[in-house]
Specification:
Elements (H helix, E strand, L loop, with lengths): L17 E9 L3 H20 L3 E9 L9 H15 L3 E6 L12 E4 L4 E5 L8 H18 L13 H17 L8 H11 L1 H11 L4 H4 L1 H15 L2 H33 L12 H44 L2 H8 L5 H23 L4 H8 L3 E2 L1 H4 L1
Parallel strand pairs: 1-2, 1-3, 3-5
Antiparallel strand pairs: 4-5, 4-6
Helix pairs in contact: 1-3, 5-10, 6-10, 8-10, 8-12, 9-10, 9-12, 10-12
Length: about 375
């Protein structure tokens, strides 16, 4: 497929392409030597595959970890190095194998964090430099495009390619733009509104709807709490007397409890490291605000998906397992479908609170891998 160069009409009059800085972190030794050998051509290759920005690649020799480490720790260390350098993206070349619970992989990318990890030993013994060069460019493309699909820019004559191309140009522009206000709410508002498409792309890459399925202990605790609540007469009476306003508050409180348990328990809230350079400080704060917004939104959507699933399950259980006559006798008045919905709502809220207790038992690694979708480079591992 032919690459399509950036043309003048792709930008507004007087608008210059944004500069996207990619930090290439390499373990001291052969990995760092390879990074130094590759750095000259990487910016050019990124510009060919991802036109719409000026690409700058900076090489840093740093082992980041002392020995084999789980994937979430490598991502966290790479992310911290990214913030320290004030970069937009980072790729870590490690001489260690990637430690994951799944089958061995060569590379992983986290669009939310803007970082990727590449294991050089997994590339084999032949053509390592060439394969590493291709892998780095492809990983950067995944981080920018938010998916595994190729992101080469197609000519505008292709409708689908034209839309993809426009979206990519916007995202590159947002990625390389620093918010103008570095104070409080002004920064937060500027980051969210000015990087809305970037935020949505990062959020979509996280796949928040799969959060509950990945957290097995939270799911088991939620189901157990729901079953207990369903067969308790006091819960039937409580659901009948709370009213919808209090029911809504209970539901919102249960969702908030799970979100806070995951956010604080696994230390997902990112803080900006101290910096001296004002430009780096501003860029770092924008990166931190953007990731925190994505993290909180991911957790809220994931927990709401859990709540909705529990509500449907609870309603079906009420309809099938709670005889209307027994329900009416317990409440001391005739019951209808609205009473069953009230009971199912309260049961699902209590089940979600049970999920918060289960979430507290999850390991930090499990929560992080559930909250952030790490995308394996299948073209290398397949």
């Amino acid at each position: 497929m032919a690459r399509h160069p950036v043309r003048a009409k792709d930008f507004a009059v007087g608008e210059e392409p944004a500069t996207v800085v990619v930090g290439l972190i390499a373990s001291p030794g052969p990995a760092a030597e390879m990074a130094e050998a590759l750095v000259g051509g990487l910016a050019r290759q990124m510009g060919e595959r991802l036109p719409g920005a000026r690409w700058s690649v900076r090489v840093v020799a740093d082992r980041l970890v002392g020995g084999p480490a789980p994937l979430h720790e490598l991502v966290a260390r790479t992310r911290r190095r990214l913030l320290d350098g004030g970069w937009q993206l980072a790729v870590f070349l490690t001489d260690l194998p990637l430690q994951t619970a799944r089958r061995p992989v060569v590379a992983h990318a986290s669009s939310a964090h803007g970082v990727a990890v590449l294991s050089l030993p997994a590339l084999g013994a032949v053509g390592v430099e060439r394969r590493a060069d291709e892998a780095i460019v492809r990983l950067v493309a995944v981080l920018v495009g938010g998916g595994d699909a190729p992101v080469d820019v197609k000519p505008s004559g292709d409708d689908g390619g034209g839309k993809h191309r426009d979206a990519l140009l916007r995202r590159l522009r947002e990625l390389g733009t620093v918010a103008g206000d570095d104070r409080g709410a002004g920064l937060v508002t500027g980051v969210i509104t000015g990087n809305l498409r970037l935020l949505i792309g990062m959020l979509r890459a996280n796949r928040p709807w799969r959060l509950a399925v990945e957290l097995s202990r939270a799911l088991v605790a939620a189901v157990a709490a729901g079953v207990f609540a369903l067969v308790t007469n006091d819960i039937w009476l409580l659901a009948d007397n709370l009213g919808w306003l209090r029911q809504t508050l209970v539901g919102a409180g249960s969702v908030l409890a799970v979100v806070l348990t995951l956010l604080l328990g696994a230390d997902l809230w990112e803080r900006a490291p101290p910096q001296r350079d004002p430009e780096v400080v501003r860029a770092t704060r924008e990166q931190v605000v953007l990731l925190n917004a994505v993290t909180v939104t991911t957790l809220v959507i994931g927990v709401l998906a859990l709540y909705c699933a529990l509500f449907v399950l609870s309603l079906v259980s009420v309809l099938l397992l709670v005889p209307p006559g027994l329900h009416a006798a317990a409440l001391d008045h005739p019951t209808g479908f609205s009473d069953q919905v009230e009971l199912a709502w309260l049961v699902s809220a209590l089940a979600t609170l049970g999920g918060a207790l289960g979430a507290g038992l999850e390991s930090d690694e499990t929560v992080r891998e559930a909250a952030y979708a790490y995308q394996p480079d299948r073209s290398l591992t397949g």
